Amino acid sequence: MEPVLRDRLTDALLANLTEPQAEAVRCTDGPLLVLAGAGAGKTRVITRRAAYLAATVTRPWNVLAITFTNKAANEMAERLVAMGVGREMTVCTFHALCARLLRIHHGRAGLPRDFTIFDVADQRKVLKEAIAAAGLSTDQWSPARVQGVISQAKNQMLTARAYEEGAADWSQRTVARIYAAYEEGLARQHGLDFDDLLLKLALLLRGDAELRGEIERRYTHVLIDEYQDTNAAQYEIARHITSKNANLCATGDPDQSIYGWRGADIRNILRFEEDFPQAHVVRLEQNYRSTKRILSAASHLIEHNVERKDKTLWTENPEGARVRVVSVEDAEDEAHFIAHEVARYRAEGGNLADVAVFYRLNSLSRTIEEALIRAGVPYQVARGTEFYNRKEIKDVLAYARVLTNPFDEVSLTRAINTPARGIGKTTIDRLVAHAQATGAPLHAVVAAPEQVAALQAAAKRRVAGFAQLLASLAPLVDGRPREGIEQLVSLTGIQAELAQLSAHDPEPAQNVEELISAASAFEEAHPDATLRDWLEYTSLLGDVDAVEEDTGKLTLMTLHAAKGLEFPRVYVIALEDGMLPFCRQEYDPTYDEEEERRLCFVGMTRAKQFLTLSHADYRMVRGVAERKTRSQFLDELPRGEIERVDGGTGSADKGRRAPRNRSALPADIERWQVHGLVRHPEYDLGRIVWIRLAGAQTRVHVAFQCGHEQTFLLAYADLTRVEFDEVD
DNA sequence: TGTATTTATGTTTTT
DNA sequence: CATAAATACA
Fold this sequence. Notes:
By secondary structure, this protein is α/β, with parallel strands linked by helices. Strands 11, 12, 13, 14, 15, 16, 17 and 18 form an 8-stranded mixed beta sheet that branches. A 6-stranded parallel beta sheet has the order 3-2-6-7-1-8, sandwiched between helices. The longest helix is centred in the N-terminal third of the chain and has 19 residues, at 170-188. The structure holds a DNA duplex.
């Protein structure tokens, strides 16, 4: 770059920054920790810093910037282009970086070239097989739970072997067996799960000094955003790729650490100065986002955390309106209140893109969505992965995946009978059995069904037909994404089937069309990408990545997804005990009150102008109305900044709400016992076989005299207890 | 074999 | 409530 041009660029990059911000941009040598409070302009600073590095001490391709979401990466990359830095800088998430490096260095990592990334559903299938293979039952070993344990282990850098060595009791030793079988299943299918991406790269770097050197020469300067949410594997990767240059810039905020449940270790950021004794630390504590009142409310809340580095956010922004705490009777009223207020805002000329609703649980969006539809308010939900979980989309992608990686049995067994071509469970079981017996990969058995003695002639013919279809589709994976998907949809017969279905249900066909558009859009953004590349891209997509800007729509998302975003008008709903802070049971061992508080803090600090917090007296949870008390967090807010609002009761149209006193446990619940007698209007007398006490979820299993047996949700069941002396 | 219906069962949050 | 698995039926 010409010196004159360069000076002009660096001047521009330092313009309009406060002194600490400019310091974070200018400090190019050695480790740097930027402790940036919420709304302190962190994104702006790191983007400028990346550009500044590229303009002064190094070249764009020597800079690696790691963000938390793909969306953040794309936005940063775009801004860099606008600043004249070009597209050569590496800006991506940890997971994308790992996928890329493992792909390039698959040989050194001991991975097959064609490995694919398994999503949670695929993982679940492999895990179920692993549980069966270990001779265990899924009743006792819930796949969901084991999946969680294995994921946690991988995040802590524990391989199956290491986990087994550390197993302290019988239960852990059993999980170790399942873990080992699961790894075997994944390896056989050439699959990596999300956690593997991090784990495998960390292990590769740990044992390969040459590769470390190579990467360090390539990336002389590394930036990692949201450092407070890195886990052990990410931490190790970060250390490995920066140990020599030590040009690591970590940015983050301990008060916004909200991924502890996923293995994120807040200590990674807290010990940065120990890891790098020569580290320079910059604190950004001036908030440019929120009004004084919003900031004050959020600050008061977070100060209730005990394990916390002291930090005081301040702002020169106006005082603003008070933070509202809205009380309503139930979720319908809450939704009605928000929908109508937003509709009014829109009618008065407001832009819906200014408005966001945050909640702790995805399931809470439904009531809000219904109210918004009724009020005619357009909205988008940050749930990108949901699209890719639809049956018809998975069907199409199963083909793409099996073509990319023939060893992928999850996709192979899905594609083999979609659309239905008479290859059912029995046939598949026989193919699998043959593969197991001979040790041949399943795809090879499918390609040569005539060798499977157990198969009937007709079945052999059908399987051979499918194998032929696959072979004819094979070239598509190295072609263009859009054309590949189009060909695939048409040649497999999926298109024809969906077209036929369209009269009854047009959605699947539309979704497939949307998938083709998505492939098309990717193609435009990445002119030389193949179907294979697109597949990898889709498997790394997250929920927030689907959020579009300037759509003129209101945005709904979880509090977790909201991190890093900002909106002029924010609603945080369901601030109730057990919802936010969220807690499944009294004795929930994973409960972390401080993390829940940080989550609430993150939500509140997204708001620029107006912040509304709401709570309801009743809320339906899993189909049962539950009495709720207001969240303790509401009582931790400063009285002076709060305005209490009665959201009105019964304002919503609750037409089909059950009028009877359903969902109440019988008053004499403590006298119900096993072997006790009960009466039911239909089945009459019965004896209680077992009782599972679980609050509103309490279930009883009754064996009736008539021979009928049934489990009841006690709150709903029309059962009455019968004393012995009432019986004839 | 494939589809429709019933029934059991379970849970945050995400790359 | 919502989904997945199990079962009944065409």
